[in-house]
Amino acid sequence: MEDRRIRVLIAKPGMDGHDRGAKVVARALRDAGMEVIYTGLRQTADMIVNAAIQEDVDAIGLSVLSGAHMHYFREVRQLLTEKKADDIIVFGGGIIPDQDLPTLEELGVGKVFTPGASTEDAAAYLREAVAKRWAKQ
């Protein structure tokens, strides 16, 4: 990998006001040596994608507990494509049913971390996925 730090944007889309998990992941990724931008609560997909492009991030992590995960992941992926930034990795976590995981994968969501997943696994996933992204640049 190049001698630069992985840049990750962590976002809470929609009206869900529970962000403890997002903050835990953000801290763990920082502790793993990554630069992390946390956008805060109640973000729209457009706000998330614009921030990701402005911050020149390698990955966007969405934290969704509200049940609206399909909508937000789909909208973020679509906006990234429209803005010619679809090489930005999208991953996520939260309360997401197993039966939705194949559809999210088809949408281009790289990995979903459900309750009980370790933050070490998230950091390892990002290191591997970003290394592949950088190799293509």
Automatic annotation (TrEMBL):
What terms describe the molecular function in GO for this protein? cobalamin binding; isomerase activity; metal ion binding
What range(s) does the B12-binding domain occupy?
5-136
Signal sequence span per UniProt?
none
Q: Which UniProt keywords apply?
A: Cobalamin, Cobalt, Isomerase, Metal-binding
State the needed cofactors, names only.
adenosylcob(III)alamin
Name the Gene3D superfamilies on file.
Cobalamin-binding domain
Q: Name one Pfam family in it.
A: B12-binding
The protein depicted here goes by the name Cobalamin B12-binding domain-containing protein
